[in-house]
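1st attempt posting a full record on here, be nice pls
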Amino acid sequence: MSELKPITALGATAARSFRNNVFSVEENPGLALASLALRRGSARPTPFGLDLPGVGAWTTNGAVSAFWTGPDQWMIEAQGRAEDDFAAELAAQCRDCSVTEQTDGFVVFELRSDLAAPAINALMSKLVNLDPARLDAGSATRTGLEHLSVFVIRRAADHLAVLGMRSAAASLWYALETAISRLTSDADKLIPEFSSEFNAVVGYEP
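the predicted structure (as tokens):
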């Protein structure tokens, strides 16, 4: 019998990453995902001690996180638990809810910048039809990125997560890498208001 080896959404045995002088992007294959939906008449649970967030919000207690996906619906995340039966553990704590395994259906990319909010906001303005100023830390929403439907999570001022369908992982990676490369190389096209620090790093002189 052949020995089976797990691969990431991008078809490799290790997570793909990309870094330049402003941004870093890394595939996050270790993130477990499970959807949670209330059944009629059931009370809102607190799985793993986590207070489930309201509309457009993301919250975390360190080990487990959640973001709102619809009325009485959430996506629950657990870092480093992708190979565990996380959905079963979640269902055991939320017996009056509907829980569905989602880990293998999505790809997750984590985007960071040492220049914090100004750089992340600049990138968001190129990627999605969202006002970066309104998607501050602790926010999450579903939107379009080129021809793809994605969830965008602002984990921190300098940290953005993008979740898309696993089947479109290569297209999503290409879109992110291309946008980052263009943003940091086409200095003459950058908006001066991004910040003097950001402009100095990429070589823009207003």
